[in-house]
Amino acid sequence: MQSARVSPAAGRLSSGFEVAEFLVLDRKLVRKLVALARSRFGIDETDAEDLVQETALEIARSPALIASPEDYAFQVFHNRCSRFLDRRVRRNAMFVQPRDWEATPATDEKLDEKAIVRAGFARISATCRGLLTSYYVEGASLKETAARSGHSPKQVWKRLNACLKKLKETIGA
Length: 173
Description:
- The protein is mainly α.
- The chain folds into 2 domains: 16-93, no CATH class; 99-171, Winged helix-like DNA-binding domain superfamily/Winged helix DNA-binding domain (Arc Repressor Mutant, subunit A), CATH 1.10.10.10.
- Helix content is 67%, strand content 0%.
- It has 8 helices and no strands.
- α1 packs antiparallel against α3 (45-60) and α7 packs across α8 (153-171).
- The N and C termini lie far apart (71 Å).
- The model is unreliable at 1-6 and 106-110 (pLDDT under 50).
């Protein structure tokens, strides 16, 4: 019988459950995944270990047969980390207060570009701020931005262009 610490045999297709078991029991692989999460994504160690466990559960539920268990584990873990960061960005974006966009008037010559853009944001409508933030700052797709605003992607695209035009007018660009 194969030891739990030994990788499933190369060249043999393994079930998701076998790969998940290998992932959980192989501490060296877990350390590699945690190090990847910390260096590549900036995720702290406890969250990274939780993501390893979630990755193992996701792999265990996989109906497909897996040819390269370690590569597959890295791929699933990488995707899991990306989704974790996306959720974190969206969760933090919900707590941005309107006063965060307020800035001093753009008449002061010492203002840097960031302050000028913030001042321009403070002068445009809340709808425009929301659309521009969602699409350009958070990196949401056009469909996601449209779903958030309750409009069609075509309408959102037109509104984004109009909002950009208004922002450019307010900052004098």
